Amino acid sequence: MAGHEPLMVVDGSGIVVQWSRQAEALLGRGADEVLGRSITPWLARTAAVADQQAEPGRDEVALCDASGHVVAKDLRVRPLPRQDGSLVWGFFQAPANGARAPDGGTVMLEALFTRAPVGLYVLDTGLRIAAANIAAQTMCGETLERILGRRLTDAYEFSPPGEVEAMLRAVLDSGAPSPERVVYVSPRGVSGRPCVMDVSAFRLEDRHGAILGVAAGLVAAGDRERALASLCVWGSVRKRVGQTLDVLATCRGLVDALVPGFADAAVVEVVDAVVRGEEPPLAPLDQGVPLRRVAFRQGDVEQQVQAHPVNDVRALPFPTPYAQTLADLKPRVVPLGPDTPWLAADPLRARAIRASGVRALLVMPLTLYGTVIGLISLYRTERAGLFDEKDVALAKEVADYTALCISDARHYTREHTIAATIQRHLLPPWRPSGPTVETASVLVPGNQGAGGWVDILNLPNARTALVVGEVAGQGIHTATTMGQLRTAIHTLATLDVDPDELLARLNDTATRLASERAALPIGDPLRHQPLTASCVYAVYDPIARTCTIARAGHPPPVITHPDGTTEIFDHPSGPPLGSTEGPPFAATTVGVAEGSILALYTISLLPSCPSGHPPGKVDSLREVLGDRPERPVQEICDDALYRLHGDNRPTDTVLLLARTRAIPADEVAAWYLDHHPSAAGTARVRAREQLATWGVDDETAYATEVIVSELVTNAVCYGSPPVRLRIIKHRVLTCEVHDTGALAPRLRHARTVDEGGRGLFICAQLAQTWGIRYTSDGKTVWTEQPLPLQPGRSG
């Protein structure tokens, strides 16, 4: 019968959710064309049926087809409550004879107002209550006579405040129905926890289009909405907690996720040893174990009220719910009031609780595998009410997840601390600047690195090697790999090889270490970490006043001249260490004036680009180095760090500065000798005279004469002309003999009857150390002897 079944049904947003065969026949549209779409395009203006005589309360509407012609007139719109408490709207055809159906019209409205579980309000154009059903009166706890003429927001307290009033005004002004939205609702003047409700509204018009007011529906949210709210809390926790391997950031993310959606205030306290990366203590927690307050948040309060500041460390007072919870690991829901007895044991917390107006406390332990990590304290005001069992269950799940995230962060902190300790012990101790360079360096560990290093090595012939390198990665394995590469550099530097050859051999070492990683068992996580490192190796010669530099995937050094001008030493770079392919390593030699500053650094020192790309603005470093370069290099080094280094750099930041010094000309003596057996005698005489001029003691002078004689004899007998003798007096006494022959001398142990073969053996006995350096034009055999301390000289 007409009017018994709806032609169609729409929800509170005007979306078609049901479409009948009669509607399909009237409008010529199939269900697949209209379901899930708005009804607005097919609604005809009430003026289109203005020729009919309207009866008060008929609420007729009309529908039009695609061409705009009215095809269904005199339709009734009636609210239809669902089993879950939500509200939809049905479009009914009026009976053919114009009479009302027995179950329609007034009868339906009366049944709806008396029996529907939905709170229905009819508001006039001033948004004042004109009518309300029985359910609405029960919800607000007032009779119809007491709420008539009042605003809906006068009868209820909504959270967020002002949102419902703005929604009703928008519906009245635009005519567009408002979709259901979830809000917290509590009757005015009634204490207790607010209810979660769905609120929807649509505009009321007569058949001529005159605006009558707004109809609003309030439906108590059921388990579905409660589950949805829990999912929202979980989504917020997942989004903010566990995204970093930082204990403090993890706890800050937790309070941000819980306030204000789940609690009005939240505090997280963690055992102080856990924050430092140490093992958490076993339960029950001793009363004297200190906890660090790592996170706090209070919502909707301009003045944050807390008992202790964040990062405050202290033991929990006893007896209190906090101490009891960490003793038996049981969560506690505690009502708070002015006469709560345990507040006397913790006056500071009592003062904060009274000042903030909280009325309920949920204390949840943070535990993992029988150990105690910390404590979560959640507070609610009187408006939010007490915590129930479902709240406790949700908080327990959140606490378990947070404890696992904190444990992961603690493991990372511990490993990072161990790696940083290994790195610190593997790096060379600080030492004063030498006679040929004034040096200063800084190394700032990154939060994801432990592979940066810096070295200053004394080489033969008064030269100095400057080294800066970095192993990519983090953790203990990165630190130990750094130590292995640094040891290899020290060994190769002792052999006095050229910088490019040193890096080539160092790359062989890195490649071998990488192959050892690849051969580890499949389950070893180190197997999947590639070994990549960068290094720059520079050798400064204070006599020639040159610097020879080679790079392996490292940023180019910066040279600051004595007049303050700077330039980038951008010669070709070899591949990073550990690479099996790429161009060969190359070394470049440049002249360096006395008083110049060489700057070697890692890329993380440089500031990031504005777009957030990796750092790389070397111009900013040049600006710092060129600013008053006459300052002490340590001051310049610190200034560069303060001005360039930002927070949260992931890798190690290294900067090494070296101001060059030249050896005075009167501390170097050199002679070219005839390629003749008599050259040894000439060398002894000239060495004796020079050592006397320098005031060298007789014992050292005699040993030097013997060394010079043996080295020159070997050069004449086995080398090629020209032969050059050079003696250098700086921190040690250096003797070197150069010839153009390629034949390498070697240390022999001559027999008793042998007439020769004892030259290098004698030199090795008289000298502190000796060696051979090969160059493009021959070889140099050198020795070093210690000089006795002179009055007024430091060691």
Report on this structure:
The chain has 795 residues and is α+β, with helices and mostly antiparallel strands. It is built from 20 helices and 33 strands. The strands form 6 sheets. The protein has a 6-stranded antiparallel β-sheet with strand order 2-1-6-5-4-3, sandwiched between helices. Strand 32 (769-775) and strand 33 (778-786) form a beta hairpin. The radius of gyration is 43 Å and the shape is elongated. Mean pLDDT is 81; it is low at 45-59, 98-105, 610-614, 750-756 and 791-795.
Give the arrangement of secondary structure elements.
Layout: E1 8-10, E2 16-19, H1 21-27, H2 31-34, E3 43-44, E4 60-64, E5 70-81, E6 87-93, H3 105-115, E7 119-123, E8 129-132, H4 134-140, H5 144-147, H6 152-155, E9 156-159, H7 163-174, E10 178-187, E11 195-205, E12 211-220, H8 223-240, H9 247-258, E13 265-271, H10 272-275, E14 291-298, E15 313-314, H11 321-328, E16 332-335, H12 347-356, E17 358-368, E18 371-381, H13 389-426, E19 437-444, E20 452-458, E21 464-471, H14 476-494, H15 499-518, E22 533-541, E23 546-552, E24 558-560, E25 566-568, E26 587-591, E27 597-601, H16 618-625, H17 633-644, E28 653-660, E29 668-673, H18 679-694, H19 698-718, E30 723-729, E31 732-739, H20 759-766, E32 769-775, E33 778-786
Antiparallel strand pairs: 1-2, 1-6, 3-4, 4-5, 5-6, 7-8, 7-12, 9-10, 10-11, 11-12, 13-14, 13-18, 14-15, 16-17, 17-18, 19-28, 20-21, 21-22, 22-23, 23-26, 24-25, 24-27, 27-28, 29-30, 30-31, 31-33, 32-33
Helix pairs in contact: 8-9, 9-13, 13-14, 14-15, 16-17, 18-19, 19-20
